[in-house]
Amino acid sequence: MADSHSTPDFVVSGTERHLIVGYRPQGRDTSTPSLTLSGKWLRAAGFDTGKRFTVKVMDGCIVL
């Protein structure tokens, strides 16, 4: 059992993020949706620069 005063090796600051789907301009065409994730919280969650991951897409849901 963990000591009552122990702390984890890292702490992810919050487990929920709210984003807005933007667009990636291609000339005058703004119909291509785009999502951008950035922040130190990604590293805290295990997503270091250069790390490969899989994206699973379902109706209304994206899982990394």
TrEMBL record:
Output a single Gene Ontology CC term carried by this record.
cytoplasm
GO terms classed as biological process: RNA metabolic process
Pfam families listed in its UniProt record: SymE_toxin
GO terms, molecular function: hydrolase activity, acting on ester bonds; RNA binding
**Superkingdom of source:** Bacteria
| Domain Toxin SymE-like: residue ranges | 16-64
Q: Which InterPro entries match?
A: Toxin_SymE-like
Q: What is this protein called in UniProt?
A: Toxin SymE-like domain-containing protein
Q: Which organism is it from?
A: Klebsiella michiganensis
